[in-house]
Amino acid sequence: MSGPVGVGVIGAGVISNQYLENLVTAADLAVLMVADLDPARAAAQAAAYGVPSSGTVSELLARDDIEIVVNLTIPAAHVPVALDALAAGKHVWSEKPFALDLESGQALLDEAHRVGLRVACAPDTVLGAGVQTGRRLLESGAIGTPLTAFTAFQVSGPEAWHPNPDFLYARGAGPLFDMGPYYLSTLVQLLGPAARVAARGSQARASRIIASGPRQGESFAVEVPTHVSALIDFEGGATAQSTFSFQSSRPRVGVVEIAGTEGTLSLPDPNMFDGELRIWRDGMFDESEAEVVPATGSTFSRGAGVVELARAIRAGRPERASGEFAFHVLDIMVSTQLSAETDGAAVDITSTVPIPPALPETWNPTEQTL
Ligand SMILES: NC(=O)c1ccc[n+]([C@@H]2O[C@H](COP(=O)([O-])OP(=O)(O)OC[C@H]3O[C@@H](n4cnc5c(N)ncnc54)[C@H](O)[C@@H]3O)[C@@H](O)[C@H]2O)c1
Fold first, then answer.
1. Could you say which residues of the chain have pLDDT below 70?
2. Which fold has domain 5-121?
3. FRET partner for 308 with CA separation of 20 to 30 A, picked from 9, 224, 240, 357?
4. Does the beta carbon of 72 lie inside 6 Å of ligand 1?
5. pTM for the complete prediction?
6. Rounded to an integer, what distance in angstroms lies between the CA atom of residue 216 and that of residue 225?
7. CA-closest residue to ligand 1 atom 39
8. 200 close to ligand 1 (CB < 6 Angstrom)
C-alpha cells in the first residue's frame, strides 16, 4: 500500500490538543476522525484542527479507512479501548501507561500477537532530540562506562492546572504511573532493561482540591501514593535512584543524570523533545564549566511515535515505541509500587526488552515517505 496511513483519535481531552496539532502536519498520516464518550467534545476538537469527521467510538472503529487508533483516553480505559480497536482490525497507539496492571498488559500484548496487529505506546519523547542525542553520546563513549543514574520529578501536584485531575490520583496514575514512563523509558533507552527495584512511598493527604476550570474548589479522593523513591538495578550492572513526587512545594522536574567512569551526562527534561545536554568532568564545580551539547534530531513533539509506527507498519519492521517496551516500563512501575507496599523489599523485574535502534539524526516525521 502507498499513501498516508489513516488515523482515528479516541479521547478528545487535554492532551488531544498537542497530538492533533502535530498529527495533522505529518504527510504520512491522514487524520480522519475524532471520537469521545462526549461527542460534542470530539466535534469541537475535530473542528479546531481541521479533522473531517467526529462521532462515537463505535462509528470510528467501523471505518475501513482508519488503520491506526490513537488512544488518548484516561488510563483505566487504555486497555479496553485498545482491545476494541484490535477487535476491529486496527493497530493502536496508546497514551501511557500501557495498562493498569501486568495481567491486563500481558493480555493486550498476547491479543495483538494473536491477531497480528501492533499496540505501540507513549512516551514518544524517547524519540525526541534530547534522549536520542543522549543515546549517541553514551554510545560514542562520551562519559565512559555508565555506572549510576539520578532522576527527579517533584511538584505539588497537577490539580493546580488540570481541570479534571481525579484520574491523575487514581489507580494507574499518581506520580509513579503518570510521570514514571518518561523517566523510566529514558533510563531503559540509555542503560538497558531493569532487573530489580526497591522503593519507598507515602501519601501526604487523603483528598485534594481542584484549583482550576469549571470544577474549581471540588474535593476528590487520592487513591495512590503521592511520593515514591526507587532504587533500580539494571541488567547491565548500572543502578539508578529515582524520585517521583506530587507532594513537594519545591518544584524540581526534568532531572536525568548519568554518571560514568569518565564524566557525568545531564539530559534535558524527558517529558520534552529537545533541550541542552551537559557533560561534566572531574574538577568542574560550576554549571558554567560543563560542556554544553545541543540536542540534535527531531523536535516534532507528541505524535512522533504515531508517525514512526505508521512507517514501521508499512515497512514490516518493529516500531520503536513498542508495546513490549512499554510493558517492561509498566513492569518496573508495578514492581516499584509492590516494593513500596512491602516495606521496601526488593522485587525482581521478570520482563525484559531489546533496546530499539537509535533514530537517524535526520529523521523527519513531517516529510512524505509513504
Ligand atoms: N494532560 C496532559 O498534559 C498529558 C500529557 C501526556 C500524556 N497524557 C495522557 O493522556 C491521557 C489523557 O489525558 P488527558 O489529560 O487528555 O485526560 P482528559 O480527562 O482531559 O481527557 C480524556 C478524554 O478521554 C475520554 N474518554 C475516557 N474514556 C473513554 C472511552 N472509554 N472511550 C472514549 N473516550 C473516552 C474522556 O471523555 C475525555 O474527553 C492520559 O493517559 C494521560 O496520562 C496527558
1. none
2. Rossmann fold (3.40.50)
3. 240
4. yes
5. 0.97
6. 23
7. 13
8. no
